[in-house]
């Protein structure tokens, strides 16, 4: 490379970085718009209109994950990506009256993918947090169990899975991953209460707000860890 080529190369890198940064901001704006419409449709109790908004949320987040990873020159983790895709399928299934079990199964598999990703991250001791996770799980099952009827076994299995996901997120010692997992647990817990105990628009809003924020926090946490590991290596 000639000496006079160096400024050109640097300029191209700066331009590429600026373009990727702009794309990230654009995707966040797009997500905010779609998300705002989805929340409005929930507040107005127009479930049918959500067929146009809810299925768009995860594709935008997945697109954001790809773009944000490229900006930070991080590899795409297949386990985490699979979790996002399965979450998208779960969102679509739950739009239909017949889709609860396929939706539950999709999110169960999504959490398993997240657990596998957390296990592949460098592990640290988090035994002191296990009693709190078990306390949440026991309290949740104790509260909701009488309302489940024939859904007792699937919901209990799902509860154990999300509690496991929460615990292994704590072992990563990544604040963003832990926050994402906590928000996911809140979202799923409120969703179960809304479905089996007492439905309200307020609970549906809490479910979606915590759910979308959870996925965003997980994306930011995963990219942050991949970037950190790349720098260390």
- The assigned structural class equals mainly alpha
* SSE pattern, N- to C-terminal: HHHHHHHH
Tell me which oligomeric state these chains represent: single chain
Shape: globular
What is the strand tally?
0
How much of the polypeptide forms β-strand, as a percent range? under 5%
Largest sheet: none
Question: Which regions have little confidence, pLDDT < 50, spanning 5+ residues?
Answer: none
DSSP helix fraction: over 70%
Task: Tally the helices.
Answer: 8
Q: In short, what is this structure?
A:
With 233 residues, the protein is mainly alpha-helical.
Structural description of this entry:
The chain has 233 residues and is mainly α. Helices cover 78% and strands 0% of the residues. It has eight helices and no strands. The protein has helices spanning 6-43, 54-71, 78-93, 100-120, 130-144, 152-171, 175-196, 201-232.
Question: Which secondary structure elements does this structure contain, and how are they paired or packed?
Answer:
Blueprint: H1 6-43, H2 54-71, H3 78-93, H4 100-120, H5 130-144, H6 152-171, H7 175-196, H8 201-232
Helix pairs in contact: 1-2, 1-8, 2-3, 2-8, 3-4, 4-6, 5-6, 6-7, 7-8
